[in-house]
Amino acid sequence: MPILRLALAQTNPRLGDFSGNISTIVGYVQRAAAKGADLVAFGEMALTGYPIEDLATRPEFLHLARTELEGLALRLLSAGLGSTTVVIGFPNGPISLPATNAAHSPTAIAHNAAAVIQDGRVLGIYNKHHLPNYSVFDEHRNFRPGDSVMIVHVADCDVAITICEDIWRDGDLMTSIADVHPGLLLVINGSPFEREKDEVRLPLVRRRAQQTGAHVAYLNLVGGQDDLVFDGDSFVVNASGKLLARSPQFVEDLLVVDLELPASRTNGAPIGAGFTVVQAGRPSPFHVALRTPSPVERNDDNREQIWNALVLGLRDYVEKNGFPSLILGLSGGIDSAVCAALAVDAVGAERVFGVSMPSDYSSDHSRSDAEDLAERLGIDLRSEVISDLVAPIEAQLALSEIAAENLQARIRGVILMSLSNAEGHLVLTTGNKTEIAVGYSTIYGDSVGGFAPIRDVPKTLVWELARWRNEAARRANLREPIPEASITKPPSAELRPGQLDQDTLPEYDVLDALLDAYITKRMGRDEVVALGFDAFTVDRVIALVDRAEWKRRQGAIGPKISEMAFGRDRRLPVTFVRS
Ligand SMILES: Nc1ncnc2c1ncn2[C@@H]1O[C@H](COP(=O)(O)OP(=O)(O)OC[C@H]2O[C@@H]([n+]3cccc(C(=O)O)c3)[C@H](O)[C@@H]2O)[C@@H](O)[C@H]1O
Ligand SMILES: Nc1ncnc2c1ncn2[C@@H]1O[C@H](COP(=O)(O)OP(=O)(O)OP(=O)(O)O)[C@@H](O)[C@H]1O
Ligand SMILES: NC(=O)CC[C@H](N)C(=O)O
């Protein structure tokens, strides 16, 4: 049986940075070729970054992508890497610019595609069949579906190529692939992280292996792109679904494996309508057997995965947008403490700046806990007392009650944005998913900021993550980054004397369970009540959630970690009458 030496390049592209992405790609092909790989695969849209959204409707962008793809093929050839077969995701648009500007056309003009490159040329292109159009995906808006099945003949083996959503759907594509009996099904992905999604992907891939009788190589992107985090976690299973090799999550990686596959049935010759067969590899030279690495030991602790996803999402937002540093208000509470710890893990303590902004109602511990946090994290902390800034506005406008309370949060927002303008920091807004759900924040106040690291993290999970992060530090014999007092104190906005969150909101464990039913599980009011929640509380919470939609529309983006994040995942009208 022939042996295919397969390399999966789990890269972190920067969207639109063709020259940076191509340098990375050439580097990975070089490393893979040095290990004798016959085939090197890159992720979905690894050339451009993913998702490209409406850039897929811009002819100039598509034309540039095509030119860069052809340039990559020539660059690989001139670097002596021409004989290695490369599969890479890119947007496949019209080769020449149309006379009229197709960006104004309502019809998609491009395919979400994978190119097969060898000997300085693009040998073939596979266009994704199944375009996801749910959750965060809008691929029917931006792409046309493909209709041909692709088999690449390489190293005496047949390799079927698919892209991400293709393997999530039963039907003709999977059946057609099974009929050809390829040795390997290669699926290149841009599959965003969600907690527990790995528990869906692996069984799905195993099922496809058994259905097609082929080994399956699942290759994912890694990195943060706006509100999405790609976790990598690429892996290979054999035809019975046994896990052979696996890349780590949340870092770039090159996974090289030897796969003993059935000999090619196509021999690179055409096999009929609906199929594209690409003759790529020459018979592979004699391989010195490779010791396939045993699959990376996975720590299935959900909290660790979520923490790492949040860190990567924040780091890549900062680095890919070129921010030198981060700034956030430190109240001594748990949300700002967790955001600060994430920030330090993402970019290092020297690039994180905290501001304590006490008011007349701030407790002593709000200051001392913020100081303790800053000291533990090794970050800069300055103090800006807000009382003298609040007083004249409050007096001039004769503000009282909620208007006066919110003014304090707004003055803090002004301070943070002013320091951002003056010193160049990106402002982090510290709102968690629970508060964002019920609108428990001051618009243009504590919701001010450019990135929201925990916007998809419910309050009860914020506490769990804080405990996990401290445990991780203890296990490594390091100092716990988050003061215990910030974890155990009752949450308070401290906008009036003695204010507690629970004066206004149900207990957080009840509230989070209720929100999970209404938001994540999309249950109706009666279904939520039937779960055992008090009907009055259900009505009140649902009303708060629905009424806060306008605030969410204006909120900063942040990493998605759940199956139902606010934003692209959950799109509801602002103006509507609830019946
Ligand atoms: N549909 C809609 N479209 C456009 N605008 C709409 C609107 N509905 C209300 N508005 C506007 O919204 C304003 C009210 O919103 P906003 O000014 O935010 O104020 P509001 O939501 O009334 O009050 C903020 C709440 O958040 C709490 N808070 C504040 C700060 C921090 C924390 C914390 O613990 O982290 C909690 C605070 O205790 C209070 O309960 C109205 O004056 C109105 O102008
Ligand atoms: N005294 C303060 N000094 C600095 N920042 C503050 C202060 N009070 C509030 N903030 C900022 O406003 C955000 C909202 O804080 P608030 O205390 O109102 O509620 P919270 O949602 O419980 O947050 P936290 O758990 O961080 O206290 C804080 O996370 C912090 O960034
Ligand atoms: N890019 C895609 O096609 C992704 C869709 C797929 N179901 C996933 O999230 O893994």
Automatic annotation (TrEMBL):
Keyword set, alphabetical order: ATP-binding, Ligase, NAD, Nucleotide-binding
GO cellular component: cytoplasm
Enzyme class: ligase
Residue stretches making up the CN hydrolase domain: 4-261
Catalysed reaction, written as an equation: deamido-NAD(+) + L-glutamine + ATP + H2O = L-glutamate + AMP + diphosphate + NAD(+) + H(+)
UniProt-recorded Gene Ontology molecular function terms: ATP binding; glutaminase activity; NAD+ synthase (glutamine-hydrolyzing) activity; NAD+ synthase activity; nitrilase activity
Protein name per UniProt: Glutamine-dependent NAD(+) synthetase
